[in-house]
What we know:
Layout: H1 12-23, E1 32-40, H2 43-55, E2 59-63, E3 73-82, H3 86-102, E4 106-112
Antiparallel strand pairs: 1-3, 1-4, 2-3
Amino acid sequence: MDARSPETGIKYKDIALLGQMLKQGADLNQPRHALYYLYFGSREAADAGAGDGREAGYSCEVREPLPAYPDQWSLVCERPDAVLDIPGVNRADELFQGIADRHEGEFDGWEAAV
Length: 114
């Protein structure tokens, strides 16, 4: 589901999420709390990704690996004022995919309050 819409440039999985939010009555032009999830193969890479996220204005927390995934550190970045219109989703995707690419991690996606 990393394929993108040729019209908007947004990943189809993000379009599906935005559609669900709209069905629940969300106004996508209004700021809301959003969380972004990334995974890294080392604590150092996750810490470096957190630094990049903080520089971009996000609060970031590196979490220890779960027992089922002992070599995977998670990074959760969040902000209370994300605007999830098309340009906002594209900007966040570029930011977090860039962080993942620079530090050999994976950007898994996001969730947001309605």
